[in-house]
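Q: I have two molecules that I believe assemble together. Could you output structure tokens for the complex as a whole instead of separate predictions?
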Amino acid sequence: MPSLKDLRGRINSVKSTRKITQAMKMVAAAKLRRAQSQAEQARPYAERMERMLASLGSAVAGSPDAPKLLVGTGADKVHLLVVVTADRGLAGPFNTNVGRFARSRIRALEAEGKTVKVLSVGRKGAAFLKREFPRHIVGEVTFMGKKRIGFEDASAVAARMTEMLEAGEFDVCSLVYNRFRSVITQIPTDQRLIPAPLPEATAEAASGPQALYEYEPAEEEILSTLLPRNLAIQVYRALLENNAGFYGSQMNAMDNATRNAGEMIKKLTLNYNRTRQANITKELIEIISGAEAV
Amino acid sequence: MATFQLELVSPEKLLLSRPVEMAVIPALEGEMGVLPGHSPMIVMLRGGVIQVTEGGQVTDRLFVGGGFAEITPERCTVLADEATPVAELSRAAAGARVTEAEAAYAEATSAPPEKRDAAMQRLLSARAMLQAAEAA
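A: Yes, here they are, computed for all two components at once.
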């Protein structure tokens, strides 16, 4: 039986925990709104880029000297997984979900006899994967201490991927990240980047009005600039969705924690009052029985 | 006068989307005026200023640091690497960028041609930015 003083101490400590989780929840909610609007603002560019790429890609894809970024190296041996996670924790199962998803992807690819390399973006994922696959990690990027993820950060990651491709370090590249479906649901997804998946409608588009575009300079030249840019934008989108998802998940986790703390306080207070009453009753009995004995 | 839809987007946001009469965009192979009914084109851009004309007057001037444009008879979409209204450019920042790009270019003179070209493009874009900043 804990003493009254112990109980008081515990109640106070749970109360301050609740204050912290409540504050974290509010902060996460505010940051979530900002992250969401940032992700929304990036959408128009990505959409239009896709449209342009579809018409250009269909014009070039058939030719034998199509750029590697578009059609890959032709082989299917070495896979590069770019795993995007958050830099910080305290967000429920957010990071673990991606980690687990990546792990099962790596296992599946290895079972098929492929070589897997991992480029980790975000501190938490790096920690998780390093424990399980220390030899697969070829690099890691974190944005610790950055207030806002900019397009340049995504460009840097994309440039690194392009360099690796040029050096022949991998054949196929996919991006593993938490897709932001809503504030409460984030789905770990696997998106192929290289070779670039062209939209289904390309065959029609080639014969449709889109094929009538004039290009200045030539298609190949535009593509050689457009493709790295497209890669960067895909990475950028993943980073932003990851960011928004992280705050959503953190908000949820903190909401739950706040609620649990509230319940805990209720239980402890009840316990405290019972103990206090029991003490009083005991003292009363002692006094009464003492008086009777006299 | 007839108008067409001009859209200017950077990776970070949609900057402009409204009907205009004419836009002059800095294409890689020279300035290019776009009027309604232009034949479909996809062009690359160099660093330079986009001029927007409405009601017979230049109403907006925006600096873009390179990118792409997709032109159709009723629409012109500019995908800019970065875009700033000319009035908001700062001469000091532009100057700093030119110095930086010059250094990068000097370093790249012995690099493979693609790298040198990229450095050259950056330098030209930075110079265009400085020019625009000084003119504003």
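A: One point stands out. The interface with chain B takes residues 38, 41-42, 44-45, 48-49, 51-52, 55-56, 150-151, 154, 209, 212-217, 221-222, 225-226, 229, 232-233, 236 of chain A (CB under 8 Å).
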